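seq as requested:
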Amino acid sequence: MQALKNLAKKIVARKAQEHVTPLDKLIYLGSTFQGYYVPANYLHASSICYCVGAGVDISLDVELATTFNSQVFIFDPMPYALDHFNTLIEKTEKGERFKASGTDGEYVYSVKRQQLDSIQFLATGVWNEKKVVKFYSPSKENYPGHSITNLQKTEDYIEAPVDKLVNIMRSLNHQHVDLLKIEIEGSEYVVIEDLLRDQLDVRVILVEFDEFHHREGKVLATVNRINQTTNKLLKAGYKLVHSISFYKRTFVRADVFETLQKL
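C-alpha cells:
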C-alpha cells in the first residue's frame, strides 16, 4: 500500500511540472508555506502588485514592498486579516518583533515603518461580480481560510463584500497590474476565468490551487480542474515558469517573459 502511495505522489509531482518553461533569475519571497517564486529583475518602485487573499501571513506582500519598493495592494474582507495587518503596523512602530501566524509559524516580519506606507489594505474580496457573499468557515477551528466555494464543506459563514478585478482596477485608476497573487481558498478558478474574459492587462500571476489541499482522495479530478485553468492561461499567452508538487504556480505573460530572458 505504501509503495502505491509513493508511486501516486511521484506521478502527481511529475504532472505538476508539465508545461513548465523555466525562467532564469527567479527569487523566492515570503514564508516557507506562503511564499512564491517571482522574477528577480522585473519589479521596481513604480510596479503595481495586487495580493488577493491575506489571512494572517502577508510575508510575500510585505517582501514585495521591501525588496522592490513596489506599490502593494492587499485585498481580504476577513476581519482577522485586517487585524493582522494593523498589528504589524503597531508592532513595527514600537520596534517589536511580529510573526506571521500561518502554517509556517516561524516567519518574523522585517520591515521599516515607512515601507509599510507603500502597502494599502482593502477590505474586499475578489470574485466575478460585485455583491455581498457568504465566506464559509474552515473545518479547522481558528484556521484563517474562509471560502466562497465552501471548499471544506462547513455550515458557518461570514458575509462580506466582493467585486470584479476590473472594477477594482478602475476604482484605483490602474490600467495594468504588474503582479497578481491569488490565494483565495478555491475561488481562484472563477477569478482567473473572469480576468481572462475581461482581457485585463495582468503581467505576472502567482496562484495556489487550494483545492489540491482538500481533494479528499479525488486527485485526478482535482488535477484535471487545475490543468484546465492552467491551459486557459497558456492559451491566453502566459508561460508557466515555476510549479511545485502541491500546485503553487508562477505564470509570466509571454511578452514579459521574452523581455526578461534577454536581460
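The chain has a mean pLDDT of 91.
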